[in-house]
Amino acid sequence: MTIKAILTDIEGTTSAVSFVFDVLFPYAKQHLPEFVREHAAEPDVAAQLQAVRDDSAEPDASIERVIEILLQWIAEDRKATPLKALQGMVWQQGYQAGQLKGHVYPDAVEALKNWHQAGYALYVYSSGSIQAQKLIFGCSEAGDLSGLFSGYFDTTSGHKRDQASYRSITSKIGQPAEAILFLSDIVEELDAAQLAGMATCALVRDGGALEGHPNFSSFAAIEPSAF
């Protein structure tokens, strides 16, 4: 079946892993405590803080204890939805202040623009919150790329190594699974997408190979019509 939609991961795929670990995570770690203290009473923030209490089974945790839990989750690189949501809020402030610029590989920028122009519907699926995804592309070093995308998916659609997540996303995109091409640098994610019926493409920017999937070192070499 002809590919109609392209679903892409971010970290290690469109963007450098180092940007996330060396820029975004340290920024969130530095600024999150102050952000939580200043905005704890706001409904959107309060809801996420309550979710932290629920997830950690500490219903009466104080604001300072919640901050402590969040910093521990950052240290563990835990894919916790309330942490991702709060990080996204902190990063938004950083992007708006001009302190952060989203990294997107030049080959990814060019390919995404070409695919969009060619009529492919483009989507993002990342463990980072939808808000954080929009910020990376909307405030990128290459300018505002947000207009290229038809939708975004995060862990609220399920974990990235679970095929059920890809079935859910397929339903939301509204295309048959075999008409969707998924791009990632993680073989377990590619395996899950493949089991859900999607076409898959592995990004191996640093060399090596991900078994069971076509491998590419750059977006420039990917031709969606070949899948």
How is this structure best summarized?
With 227 residues, this protein is of the alpha/beta class. It has helices spanning 17-39, 43-55, 63-76, 81-96, 106-117, 130-138, 163-173, 187-195; strands at residues 5-8, 121-125, 149-153, 180-184, 199-203, 215-216.
Report what the structure shows.
The protein is an alpha/beta fold and about 230 residues long. The chain folds into two domains: about 5-15 and about 105-225, Rossmann fold, CATH 3.40.50.1000; about 20-95, Transcription Termination Factor Rho, Rna-binding Domain, Chain A, Domain 1. Helices cover about 45% and strands about 10% of the residues. It contains eight helices and six strands; from the N terminus they run βαααααβαβαβαββ. It has helices at about 15-40, 45-55, 65-75, 80-95, 105-115, 130-140, 165-175, 185-195; strands spanning about 5-10, 120-125, 150-155, 180-185, 200-205, 215. The chain has a six-stranded parallel β-sheet with strand order 3-2-1-4-5-6, with helices on both faces. Helix 8 links the parallel strand 4 (about 180-185) and strand 5. The longest helix is centred in the first third of the chain and has 23 residues, at about 15-40.
